[in-house]
Amino acid sequence: MAKVVTYEELKAHSTKDNLYVLIHGEVYDVTKFIDEHPGGDDVILAEAGKDATQAFEDVGHSDEARDLLPPLLVGSFEKEGALKISDTKAPGSGASVSDAVEQGSNLMYFIPLTLLGAYFAWRFYGA
């Protein structure tokens, strides 16, 4: 059975010598990796003791970086704890890209067409 990590346990592991991070509801022990992190140790330490999902996704980690996570897995984070985890979608779910396209699709066409129509109206009626 997978270990369930509590918020108190996550907070207790928040130093450079003993560091857990919470990403997508899973807790990882990144203590051995922290010195190798390309962004430096300060970036990871800033997310200690809280949900690092948004920070992890905002950076846009490569597939190779994501492949480093499974061996570092400690367990799942408690579902009903003091810290509420974000619902940021994991990459590969396909929904995040499609949501962004759907939200932006109306503006992607409406704004240029409006500008083009305004230009032709100005040329036709104004000149």
Automatic annotation (TrEMBL):
Q: Which Pfam families does the annotation name? A: Cyt-b5
Q: Which SMART domains match?
A: Cyt-b5 (SM01117)
Family label: Belongs to the cytochrome b5 family.
Is Disulfide bond one of the keywords UniProt gives this record?
no
Annotated coiled-coil segments of the chain: none
Which UniProt keywords are given for this protein, alphabetically ordered? Answer: Electron transport, Endoplasmic reticulum, Heme, Iron, Membrane, Metal-binding, Microsome, Transmembrane, Transport
Q: Example GO molecular function term? A: heme binding
Give the primary localization class. endoplasmic reticulum
**Gene3D superfamilies under this entry?**
Cytochrome b5-like heme/steroid binding domain
Cytochrome b5 heme-binding domain span: 2-78
Example GO CC term: the record gives:
endoplasmic reticulum membrane
| InterPro entries, per database record | Cyt_B5-like_heme/steroid-bd, Cyt_B5-like_heme/steroid_sf, Cyt_B5_heme-BS, Cytochrome_b5
Name its cellular compartments.
Endoplasmic reticulum membrane; Microsome membrane
Q: Please state what the protein is called.
A: Cytochrome b5-like heme/steroid binding domain-containing protein
Q: Provide the topology term for how it sits in the membrane.
A: Single-pass membrane protein
